[in-house]
Amino acid sequence: MSFPQIQFLLLRSCNISKFPNILRNQESIHYLDLSSNIINGEIPNWIWNVGNVSLYYLNLSHNALEGLELPFPHLSLSSLEFLDLSFNKLEGSIPIPPPSTTIYSLASNHFSGEAPSHICNCTSLQFLDLSNNRFNGSIPLCLGEITDALVVLNLRGNAFQGTLIQTFKEGCNLKTLDLNGNQLEGQVPKSLAKCKMLEVLNLGNNQIHDTFPFWLENLSQLRVLILRSNKFHGSVGHPLKNLIFPMLQIFDLSFNSFTGSLPSNMFRSWNVMKEDKSQLMVLGKTLSSGMYYQDRVTVVSKGLQMEVVKILTAFTSIDLSNNEFHGGILESIGDLKSLLVLNMSHNHFTGRIPTSFGNIKALESLDISQNNLSGEIPLQLNKLTFLAVLNLSHNLLVGSIPKGQQFDTFTNESFLENLELCGPPLSKKCNDIEALLPLAQSESKYDWKLMAIGFGVGYRVGMGSLPSNMFRSCKVMKEDKSQLMVLGKRLNSGLYYQDKVTLVWKGLQMEVVKILTAFTSIDLSNNKFHRGIPESIGDLKSLLVLNMSHNHFTGQIPTSFGNIKALESLDISQNNLSDWQLVVRDWNRFSIVSRMVCVLVEVIGSISNFQIANEGQIFASQMARPLVVEGDSGNVKHAPKNSAQAISTI
Questions:
Q1: How far apart (Å, rounded) are the C-alpha atoms in residues 310 and 473?
Q2: Taking a C-beta distance cutoff of 8 angstroms, is the pair 377, 402 a contact?
Q3: What pLDDT is recorded for position 242?
């Protein structure tokens, strides 16, 4: 009894160990799928004649096939459109498919030698996958000539040498170009800009020596850009380019030699990463044959390198690690609220961790280790409830580690080598003041109602920058004082107790026994505070004593100091203040010697626009000579050399 003639035969995953003999007599079969079995040995010659040239689909992938029986037949008359021999053990010469073939895959075999150029004779090819073999030599340049039909070109994981394809045609229809993991050199060809439909460009793990290809921003459909592990160099900023990648999902520049700071507009147009994802779709392509191809890329996520086969449209990743970027991390990165993986480690980034990171609600992995970041860890990071991996190690972070939420799940590995960082899970304990500092970053307000005590921070304890809202609610210090009262308490016995404190006033340490309600003092000296002095301190118009010396404050001396009409003692010496302006109307109130006024000129940079009501002399502790301010004109000039050691007086 003969086996009936069939047109479609699917024997996938049937544990078949050899080619069924019944196929020899099938003359009308169109569709044959023998994939995912355990067929070994050679592919017999007769298999190509099955169907008597009516066979258009042949899938022998995921078996243990080792070669092709020779001589290999000529397939010029074949109707074969789909040929998949991937994931076998095939070696030797590759079979050249007929001109009718649109999908051809030899991926993950043992083929070696040069890829034959006559493969370009298959002018109908939409999908060509030679990945993960042992091909070497140059990439056939003619492949650039068939890109009007070619949608997917995957040559990753071989040993191709020389330059990339240089001649992409007008009307290029490529959507995926994957050349990852070869030995390609030279530059990224600008003719690639003709491939307007390109979605995936993967040039990682080669030896490409080039600057950042700014012209890629013209590819409005680009979703995946991987340049990792090459010899790219220079800045990613350009005065005439805006890095407009509205569809970008995966951006990987890691392990190169990029330098400079990130351009301020870098993330503004990355619209896909700004969207909330409610539906997941697989990034792929439907070819004209009706076949569907799923892109795959290798990414580093949560500290592990992994291959993402089904790239969900909701999967987003930015990897800038292992370069030489410097400057601050842009606050605008917080707009990318659907970002899942962010790696900026092993660079030279400085400044604070952006509080806007707290807006990236989908973030699962954050690595900004091995930089020069400073300041406290923003409490906003506690909003990241999906964060599974956090690495802040090897920076200059200070203060206490936030508690609760995801932070309770991280080990000390996340925070190592930040010498001024304290609190669990580190063994270094925080003292009370350090533990309070992170609270200054929250939206809570200061409302100090103690009239006379002011604010004092102990020696070498305070760190970080002063919060912008620090002085806004110090209401008592904002009031004009017309009456003086002694701060004290009447006890139940009828006795009256007067408070006393010890403080530094006008350069001298003294004990104040009768603390008047009109007496106000702020002393933040001898700590490690940095960044600017808040302008809002000028609202404290009844403040008498202000000492912020021996810190690391930077920036200008606030012009608002001129509003503190009651100020009698000001010391901001031993800082890094620069480029200052100061307006003070009534200097007769000051009765202070050198240490108070030194602060006014112990600056780095130019001194200008200094206005003063009375003639006086200012001693510059880090300058060769003192400076003299002449009368109402406000002119500043150096004093004679013999006055270099003069004591400042006003």
A1: 54
A2: yes
A3: 72
Q: Which residues contact 582 (CB under 8 A, 6 or more apart)?
A: 557, 559, 561, 562, 600, 610, 611
Of 466, 399, 395, the C-alpha closest to 431 is 399
Question: Which residues are paired to 225 by β-bridges?
Answer: 201, 251
- Mean of the pLDDT values across residues 567-583? 75
Q: What is the reported pLDDT for 467?
A: 77
* Torsion-angle region of 331 (φ positive above 0: left; ψ -120 to 50: alpha; else: beta): alpha
How high is the pLDDT of residue 392? 96
- Over residues 586-629, the pLDDT tens digits come to 444 443 333 333 333 333 233 333 333 333 333 333 333 344 44
Return contacts of 551-554, CB within 8 angstroms, 24+ apart.
Answer: 551/524, 551/525, 551/526, 551/527, 551/575, 552/528, 552/576, 553/529, 553/577, 554/530, 554/578
Measured distance CA(569)–CA(559) in Å, rounded? 16
407 vs 470 pLDDT, higher one: 407
Query: Which value, to the nearest 10 degrees, does the dihedral of the CA atoms of residues 369, 346, 246, 262 take?
Result: 100
170 contact partners, CB below 8 Å, separation of at least 6? 194
pLDDT, position 381: 93
Helix (H) or strand (E) holding 598: helix 594-601
Tell me the H-state helices in 65-118.
none
Q: What was the pLDDT predicted at 554?
A: 87
- Report the alpha-carbon angle 241-246-251, nearest 5: 80
- The rounded percent of the chain whose pLDDT value lies above 90 is 43
Please, how many CA atoms are within 13 Å of residue 103, restricted to the half-sphere of its CB?
19
Is residue 161 a contact partner of residue 137, using CB atoms and an 8 Å limit? yes
Q: Per residue in 245-262, pLDDT tens?
A: 888 989 999 999 999 999
Q: At residue 553, what is the residue type?
A: F
- Please, are residues 252 and 323 in contact by the beta-carbon 8 Å criterion? no
Q: What pTM does this model have?
A: 0.66
